Structure formats: structure tokens, C-alpha cells
């Protein structure tokens, strides 16, 4: 009996020690790369690095297209994905660490557009674009919008600038970031929802690891670490 108990403790410690596989997408300013995914940076990335360092959890980060990154974390043991909007539909698919950032959903138009919105229904007569699998695009599809979705935000803002869509649905920080990158002038039309981004982990990740990460993140918020990191990307 003693040998069996010791074996159980050994196996449990091995589960804890197994490095986490962390996936992400190219979604500035939270997580992005300027060299094809070899180096991953961004405000959420910096927070994740500091979080895992303080929690003494081994990990590796890889960048993929969003849907692949998301489904890997949902379906593969010991895998997490960031930056993930915590929605009702996703709630029971993952264990959650966060929030690592705030990311309100906003409808944008070009600055010289005459479009004015008071409600979401006002947007139905316009061409609305987002990107496939993104939480705000999924939400609008659920609201019966005929979305003109691209592969990512970079493609979507190019469509907005070219006049192929009228309204761009994206995050409150992503919109201005991409607009600055491509020299576009945009304006917010409507704030759809206040949302937060998280690290979403497969149910197979040990619950003790999730607890440690959440407690460590709370300490980072309290000591001002997360605020300082966000400031660097303003």
C-alpha cells in the first residue's frame, strides 16, 4: 500500500511538472509578431511571460491562426490559449485564468463616413466586417448579421479602407492599433459590450495550476505590474 501511495504522489508531481503548451494568434496590441511568429510580443504576451515566471510553471508559446490556436486548447490536454474572450458559449469548455486585458467590442467606420448608429439594429443596413472565429464576429453572426469576415483584423481594415465594407467590428484597442499601422483614420460608432480577455486552458490542465496562476495574476494586478505593462503598449 505504501508503494502504491508513493507512486500516486510521483505521478501527480509529474502532471504538475509537465510544461504547458500555450497557443496564441497574431492580434495586436495584445499578442503579435513582426517576424512570422518566431518572436511573440504584446501586452498580454508580456503578462503571460511574467505570470508563468512568478508561478514557476514551465511553458512554451506558439502562434497559429486563431481557429487552430483556439481548437488546440479546447481539444488537447495540457494546452491553453490567449487572448480569449470569456463568453457564455465558451464558459464550460475551458478553465479560466484572468482577466489579462480588457477588450470592449466596438463598431468602427472611417472617420469621413456619414454613418451614425444609436443601436445595433441600426447597423443591419450596412456591410459589417470582422474576422472568422473572433468572439465579436461570432456574436454578430448569432444576431443574424451577414458578416463579411476575413482571416484577421489586418485584412479587415484593408477592406474597410478599400470601401469593401462599411463597418469594422473589432476590439477597442485593436481598431486604433491597426488604423495607426496603415495610416487610416477611424471613429467609433457603437460600443457593443464590455468584455475581458483571458488565458483559456483545457480541462485537463491540473486545477492546482489554474489556482496558482489566478492567485499570481491577482498579485500582479495589486502590485501594479499589469498596469505598467499595458502602459508600454499605449
Structural write-up:
- The protein has 234 residues and is α/β, with parallel strands linked by helices.
- Helices cover 38% and strands 26% of the residues.
- It contains eight helices and twelve strands.
- It has helices at residues 2-17, 43-55, 66-75, 135-142, 153-161, 174-182, 207-222, 225-232, and strands spanning 20-24, 32-33, 40-41, 59-63, 79-85, 95-102, 105-110, 128-131, 148-150, 167-171, 186-193, 196-201.
- The strands form three sheets. A five-stranded mixed β-sheet has the order 4-1-5-12-6, sandwiched between helices. The protein has a five-stranded mixed β-sheet with strand order 9-8-10-7-11, covered by helices on one side.
- A hairpin with a 6-residue loop joins strand 2 (32-33) and strand 3.
- Helix 5 (153-161) packs across helix 6 (174-182).
- The N and C termini lie far apart (58 Å).
- 38% of the residues are buried.
- The model is unreliable at 1-16 (pLDDT under 50).
Please outline the helices and strands:
Elements: H1 2-17, E1 20-24, E2 32-33, E3 40-41, H2 43-55, E4 59-63, H3 66-75, E5 79-85, E6 95-102, E7 105-110, E8 128-131, H4 135-142, E9 148-150, H5 153-161, E10 167-171, H6 174-182, E11 186-193, E12 196-201, H7 207-222, H8 225-232
Give structural attributes.
disordered N terminus, 5-stranded mixed beta sheet, 234 residues, alpha/beta
Amino acid at each position: 500500500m505504501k508503494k502504491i501511495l508513493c507512486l500516486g504522489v510521483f505521478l501527480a508531481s509529474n502532471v504538475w511538472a509537465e510544461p504547458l503548451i500555450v497557443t496564441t494568434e497574431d492580434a495586436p496590441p495584445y499578442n503579435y509578431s513582426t517576424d512570422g511568429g518566431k518572436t511573440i510580443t504584446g501586452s498580454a504576451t508580456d503578462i503571460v511571460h511574467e505570470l508563468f515566471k512568478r508561478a514557476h510553471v514551465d511553458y512554451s508559446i506558439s502562434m497559429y491562426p486563431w481557429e487552430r490556436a483556439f481548437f488546440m486548447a479546447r481539444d488537447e490536454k495540457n494546452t491553453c490559449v490567449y487572448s480569449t474572450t470569456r463568453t457564455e458559449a465558451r464558459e464550460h469548455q475551458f478553465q479560466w485564468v484572468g482577466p489579462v486585458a480588457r477588450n470592449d467590442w466596438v463598431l468602427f467606420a472611417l472617420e469621413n463616413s456619414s454613418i451614425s448608429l444609436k443601436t445595433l439594429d441600426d447597423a443591419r443596413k450596412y456591410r459589417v466586417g470582422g474576422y472568422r472565429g473572433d468572439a465579436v464576429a461570432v456574436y454578430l453572426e448569432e444576431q443574424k448579421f451577414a458578416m463579411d469576415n476575413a482571416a484577421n483584423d489586418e485584412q479587415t481594415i484593408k477592406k474597410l479602407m478599400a470601401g469593401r465594407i462599411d463597418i469594422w467590428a473589432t476590439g477597442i484597442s485593436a481598431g486604433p492599433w491597426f488604423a495607426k499601422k496603415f495610416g487610416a483614420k477611424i471613429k467609433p460608432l457603437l460600443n457593443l459590450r464590455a468584455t475581458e480577455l483571458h488565458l483559456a486552458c483545457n480541462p485537463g490542465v491540473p486545477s492546482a495550476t489554474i489556482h496558482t496562476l489566478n492567485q499570481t495574476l491577482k498579485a500582479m494586478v495589486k502590485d501594479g505590474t499589469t498596469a505598467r505593462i499595458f502602459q508600454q503598449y499605449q
